[in-house]
Amino acid sequence: MDSVPEVGIVEQLWETDPIPDAELRDSVFDAVEQLEFDGVPDGGEVAVGAGSRGIANIPTIVSAVVDALDDRGYEPFVFPAMGSHGGATAEGQREMLEALGITEERLGCEIRATMDTVVIGKTPDRDVEVHADANAAAADAIIPANRVKPHTDFRGDVESGLSKMLVIGMGKQRGAKTAHDWAADWSFREMLPEIARLHVENLPIAGGIAIVEDEHDDTAFIEGVPPSGFLDREAELLELAYEHLPTIPFDEVDVLVVDRMGKDISGAGMDTNVIGRIVYGFEPDPPKPDITRIFVRGLTPASHGNGSGLGSADFIHADLFEELNWSDTLVNVLTASTPRAARIPPAVETDRTGLIASLSTIGVGALEAPRVVRIRDTMRLGRLAVSAPLIEEARDRDDLRVVEEPTPVEFEDGQFVDDVLEPGDH
Q1: Which of 191, 235, 340, 368 has its CA 20 to 30 A from that of 157?
Q2: Residue 20 burial (CB < 10 Å; 0-12/13-18/19+)?
Q3: Which domain of life is it from (predicted)?
């Protein structure tokens, strides 16, 4: 195998209704009004939890939460609620927030970063200690702000969202490690709700700011969820998030090229709901898509070298390998009990070599008409580069539009010349 197939461009046709930029802050202010501040004194401190994910408009959303709290006469501060990310150091987590645009200058308030926790109780049946960020636990009220979405490791009534931010994110490295250690014996689908209830009962949780994004990774829905309906409402919002989950529009793919992976894109580096591969090890892979080979080209700057999820790839570019911070990656996979997430795939020097290596290992039959897909990352799936067989399939589908006909892939010194999937592309 010494040649690569021609590729064209297809777009997915989605009907979306994102919140206009001009209305975003008002939506956040309305969400804060839905929370419960009983018992919070005038001038009381309110801890706002922010995570490490690349959530659309997250600096604006967190800043608006801070401003809304300030208008109500409270003293807000922001704390990193991201488990062991950032190398499990306070400074590393502060840097991750800054990489997302969440800075003290923009917020107009303190960012209090610590890895210290306090034990707020134990689970009734298993006697598991429940940890919480020491700064947040000392505040008069706590508000996590997070995107509700399908999780990459398990299925349950609540998955990735407000409850997970309390249990894993606000639990810091100790809480995250405890939860993941117990997950094999006590599934996440049962553990998260039980421990989240303990947080609500034992801490001054005023509620959470829940965000749901559409297929284009735009903010579609913001709601303030009070503690009285924390788990039930989050379960309903998760159903909404599933309806808007972007996926690769082809069930069978021979080679998937991913321009970049990273912790700001997914906790698994690449969303397992998109690639059909789970690195956790205690849950079965999703039934689709069926992808034979995955070649990953790069790592997002906001990951700060954390390559957790690398083990999902079959080949990686050497540039990605050089960017890896093995210490941060090791801390993350140990905390998450996912050692295979950091397994090192073969590294190739060029994009062309990565494509050839992938194609040469898919089998003889598949080479007659290889089904190749290239994406920017697993969050941005509106625009895809695909080979001729998939272009022909797209012509007969109402949910896809052919934007560009197949042409030869151009290389310079073995690297892609064209960047058909720009960062701003949906």
Answers
A1: 340
A2: exposed
A3: Archaea
Q: What CATH topology corresponds to 35-244?
A: Rossmann fold (3.40.50)
> Measured in Å, how far apart are the chain's first and last C-alpha atoms?
32
Task: Indicate the pTM of the whole model.
Answer: 0.80
Residue with tokens 């990951």: 303
Question: What confidence tens digit (pLDDT) does each residue in 118-163 have?
Answer: 999 998 888 889 999 999 999 999 999 999 988 777 777 888 899 9
Tracing tokens 């997950």 back to the chain, one arrives at 183
**367 HSE (CA, 13 A, CB side):** 14
Question: Which run of H or E residues covers position 333?
Answer: helix 326-335
For residue 383, the 8-state DSSP code is E
Among candidate residues 164, 165, 210, the one with its CA nearest the CA of residue 189: 164
- What's the mean pLDDT when you consider all of the chain? 91
Strand stretches in 176-298, DSSP E = 208-213, 219-225, 252-258, 290-296
275-289, pLDDT tens digit by residue? 998 765 556 677 789
pLDDT at residue number 151: 77
SS3 content of the chain, % helix, strand, coil (to 5): 35, 25, 40
**Spatial separation of the C-alpha atoms in residues 271 and 65, rounded to whole Å:** 28
**193 prior amide bond cis, ω within 30:** no
DSSP conformational letter for 149? B
Closest CA to 112 of 180, 25, 49: 49
Q: Between 188-202 and 230-243, two packed helices, what is the crossing angle to 10 degrees?
A: 140
Which tokens is 206 given? Answer: 């005023």
Q: Where does the chain hold its CATH 3.40.50.11440 domain(s)? A: 35-244
Nearest to 328 by CA among 52, 107, 60: 52
Q: In the sheet where 75-80 sits, what is the strand order?
A: 75-80, 45-50, 141-147, 208-213, 219-225
Structure tokens at 260: 């970049």
Q: Are 342 and 333 in contact (CB under 8 A)?
A: yes
Q: Encode pLDDT of 51-64 as tens digits.
A: 988 899 999 999 99
Q: What is the CA radius of gyration of the chain?
A: 22
